[in-house]
Amino acid sequence: MGWMHTARFLTTAAQLHHLPLVDVPEIAFVGRSNAGKSTSINTLTQQKQLAFASKKPGRTQHINLFALGKQGVTDAVLADLPGYGYAAVSRSDKERWQRVMLNYLMQRESLSAVVLLCDPRLGLTELDEALLDAIRPRVEQGLKFLVLLTKADKLTRSEQAKILSITKLNAGGGEVRMFSALKKQGVDDVAQLLWHWCHPDGLKPATPAPATPEAAAPVDTPATPDTPVQ
User: Fold this and answer.
1) Contact of 51 with 41, CB cutoff 8 Å
2) d(CA 216, CA 219)
3) DSSP state of 18
4) pTM of the prediction?
5) Which of 91, 113, 120, 167 would give a disulfide with 144, using CB separation of 3.0 to 4.6 Å?
């Protein structure tokens, strides 16, 4: 979808209070390290290097914001949060980032939707379920969430159907989609879903042009006798 292709870097921050306040819907991409988060973002936006895909999963230590919107007008923001559960960093760093992420998910006022990326071969991990539990109060208040099962190309169709069904039961009411950056499976569907979440009323109607007076209709007048010819 063309709207996703408009993504452009906005800012990066290591702490929640360093992020700028925005007045448009914000979609956060979160997930376990090595779940394919950066690759999925780059595939959805058709930009190979928009989100940094590290060769060492989990080493990205900042919240990165990207603006979305055509003609340079921002109508939504995409937030790329650090991966969790894998990074070869100190325990104190892991705990610090868990606090940052939790604060972001619970306090960020512009947050409208969360996309949780998950490797379907592993299913929802304990950390994934903890994240879903953390955002549950906001979900009950209207926060949207999507569980995106990445790397679908590594499963057969029957395996995809089975894990899709199981995840829908475990997700507790959120949307669930299969996704493959390699095969482009689910790309258009997910892009369309995110667009609708950010534009619940659809596109704003174009401002109508000012009304112009219509040409006056001819007025019927009583017929008059023909003037006699001299």
Assistant:
1) yes
2) 8
3) G
4) 0.83
5) 113
